[in-house]
Design a protein that fits this description.
The protein has 321 residues and is mostly helical. It contains twelve helices and five strands. The protein has helices at residues 2-17, 40-49, 56-85, 92-107, 109-113, 115-123, 128-153, 171-183, 189-213, 221-229, 240-260, 280-283, and strands at 22-23, 29-30, 273-277, 289-292, 306-310. The strands form two sheets. It has a three-stranded mixed β-sheet, covered by helices on one side. A two-stranded antiparallel ribbon has the order 1-2. Mean pLDDT is 87; it is low at 295-321.
Length: 321
C-alpha cells in the first residue's frame, strides 16, 4: 500500500505538473496558478504570522523567507502571463475576488507579515528585526504585490463569466486528470457525475427527514436549509464578539474531546489542534474551514499544532459555528 500510494503521488505530480495551473500538497489541482483560494499571497501570511523567533538564527531565517516571498510572487506573475498567453485566464468573478484579496493583503501587509514575528523577536532581545523586516516589506514585498495585482487586472478584458474548464485548452483532458488526482480512481467524468447525482438524491432524502425533525416542513430541501441558516437558534452576532464566541465554542469542544482520547488510544497525538480565525485579508474568499497540518520543524524545535481556521459569515445578521 505504501508503494502504491507513493507511485500514485509521483505519477500525478508528473502528469499534472506538465500542464498549466498548480497542484497543492494533497494532489488537488487547480487550473489557475493564483486565485481566490491559492497562491503565495493566500498561504504564506499564515505561516509568517506563526513564525517562532527566539534566536538570531530564527530571525535570519524569517527575514530570508520574507525576501523570498517577494521573489515567489514575481515568479507567479511570470506563470500567470505564460498561462494567459496559452489561453488560460480565470473567469471574471475569480479575478475580481483575487485582486480584492491581494489588495487587502497589501493594505494590511505589516500586520499580516511583520507584527507577530517582530514582537516575538523584540521579546527575545532582537530589536533590529522589526526595522529590517519593514525595509524588506517596503522595498520588495509591496512592489511585488503591486505587480501581481497589475498582472491579474490586465487579464480582465480576456476573462469570461463561465467557470468550467471545458473552455480552456485541452480542458476536458485537464478535468479528467484533475478528477483522478482528487479521487485516486480512473472513473470517467460522466460516470462520476452520475454517481454524484445519485449520492445527492440519497442525501437530499436524509436531509428531508432531518429538517422535518427540526420543524422545517415547508418548501424544498434547499429552501429549508436556507431557513435553517437564518434560524436564530443557529446564529451568533455577525461581529468580532460573535466570532469570538464561535471560536470559544470550538475550543471548548476540542478540549472535551481531548480528555476522552485516553479512553480509546494508548498513543496520543504528538501535537495539539488549535482553532483560529482565518486572516481577515483572505477570509472573504475562503471556504468555511481551512485545516493546516504543521509538521515538526527541521531544526527540531518540536511540533507545531494542526490549525483549523473559521471564516466570518457573509450572512446578514449572524455567523454560524
Amino acid at each position: 500500500m505504501d508503494y502504491d500510494t507513493a507511485a500514485f503521488a509521483y505519477e500525478m505530480l508528473d502528469a499534472v505538473g506538465a500542464r498549466y495551473g498548480f497542484q497543492d500538497h494533497a494532489l488537488r489541482p487547480g487550473p489557475y496558478l493564483v486565485n481566490q483560494m491559492a497562491g503565495a499571497y493566500y498561504w504564506q501570511p499564515q505561516d509568517f504570522a506563526r513564525t517562532p523567533i527566539g534566536s538570531r538564527e530564527d530571525a535570519d531565517l524569517y527575514l530570508s523567507r520574507l525576501a523570498a516571498f517577494a521573489r515567489v510572487l514575481d515568479g507567479e506573475v511570470e506563470g500567470i502571463r505564460r498561462d494567459a498567453a496559452a489561453g488560460v485566464v480565470p473567469p471574471d468573478f475569480v479575478l475580481d475576488r483575487t485582486v480584492r484579496q491581494l489588495s487587502d493583503l497589501r493594505g494590511s501587509a505589516a500586520a499580516s507579515l511583520i507584527d507577530g514575528p517582530a514582537a516575538r523577536a523584540t521579546a527575545a532581545g532582537l530589536a533590529d528585526v522589526a526595522s529590517r523586516a519593514r525595509r524588506l516589506l517596503d522595498e520588495r514585498v509591496v512592489s511585488a504585490l503591486d505587480r501581481q495585482i497589475a498582472a491579474l487586472r490586465a487579464l480582465g478584458p480576456a476573462a469570461a463569466g463561465e467557470a468550467g474548464v471545458w473552455r480552456l485548452p485541452d480542458g476536458e483532458a485537464w478535468y479528467a486528470l484533475a478528477l483522478r488526482s482528487n479521487t485516486t480512481v480512473p472513473t470517467p467524468p460522466e460516470e462520476m457525475h452520475r454517481l454524484g447525482l445519485d449520492t445527492f438524491e440519497a442525501l437530499r432524502a436524509q436531509l428531508d427527514v432531518k429538517l422535518k425533525g427540526q420543524g422545517f416542513t415547508q418548501g424544498t430541501v434547499a429552501e429549508r436549509i436556507k431557513a435553517l441558516d437564518r434560524d436564530p437558534r443557529q446564529l451568533k452576532p455577525n461581529t468580532d464578539a460573535g466570532r469570538a464566541e464561535i471560536l470559544q465554542f470550538s475550543r471548548d469542544h476540542l478540549a472535551r474531546l481531548h480528555g476522552l482520547l485516553p479512553r480509546a488510544f494508548r498513543t496520543l497525538p504528538d501535537r495539539d489542534i488549535t482553532v483560529d480565525r482565518i486572516p481577515v485579508a483572505i477570509e472573504a474568499g475562503a471556504p468555511g474551514p481551512i485545516t493546516t497540518d504543521r509538521r515538526p520543524t527541521v531544526r527540531g524545535r518540536g511540533s507545531s499544532p494542526s490549525t483549523s481556521r473559521t471564516r466570518r459569515s457573509g450572512r446578514p445578521g449572524g455567523s454560524r459555528p
